[in-house]
């Protein structure tokens, strides 16, 4: 593992390839169909963001883009583990014209600062890379579930290193300190309005037709809403017809709270700095 001291001291020298078509406005001739991507849910949004991890088979990021997807968020790390396929997949996705982001699955086994260093060393975030912390129960190893204080330490470490806050991915019950998941776990605390975590833009995980916004984000709402997990022809959201994404075996689908132009603008300046 790269130490916190070495990691934060070396961030200024990071070299990250430029995103294809990144910027505050959509690239001309992108072929994106705004109408097709407009949410058919009861909640408005742009259905143009997927997230995947190393257990997802990827055959063609070009096909992903042609499936009317604009952005991909990929798992980078978990605890002190780093996905070795991440750099190559990033290069391929950016070459296909996709916006790119990376997320870290938080655990209890290391401090928040140590996990942030691991994540940043592998993610290599540029100015147009969306970053996110996945804060949820660890169903496979419940005792290895990240705690609130660790999550706050992670967020602050990322902010110190990059000048930006990551998105926070979480479920409303988890953020509100309620019992949640198959193992009936609890965060043991509540994310409160105005706190470190509440300053992050919310990536909401809620598979109900009308999502619940956690108390800490009641005023600002969500930035991304993961409305279905592992969508396939046999598993899709709310009884609607599945919208398959070519080029990947399966994926999680997310609505962006805005239109195409707002999505590009968000990805350029992509998270809160205060």
Describe the structure.
There is one protein chain. By secondary structure, this protein is an alpha/beta fold. The chain has one domain (32-268): TIM Barrel. The protein has helices at 4-10, 34-37, 61-66, 86-95, 112-123, 148-162, 172-175, 260-268; strands at 46-52, 71-78, 81-82, 99-105, 129-134, 167-170, 202-205, 224-231, 251-256. An 8-stranded mixed beta barrel has the order 1-2-4-5-6-7-8-9, surrounded by 4 helices. The chain is globular and about 45 Å long. The two termini are 29 Å apart. Residues 1-23 have low confidence and may be disordered.
Architecture blueprint of SSEs:
Elements: H1 4-10, H2 34-37, E1 46-52, H3 61-66, E2 71-78, E3 81-82, H4 86-95, E4 99-105, H5 112-123, E5 129-134, H6 148-162, E6 167-170, H7 172-175, E7 202-205, E8 224-231, E9 251-256, H8 260-268
Parallel strand pairs: 1-2, 2-4, 4-5, 5-6, 6-7, 7-8
Antiparallel strand pairs: 1-9, 2-3, 8-9
Short description:
The protein is an alpha/beta fold. It has helices at 4-10, 34-37, 61-66, 86-95, 112-123, 148-162, 172-175, 260-268; strands at residues 46-52, 71-78, 81-82, 99-105, 129-134, 167-170, 202-205, 224-231, 251-256. Helix content is 24%, strand content 19%.
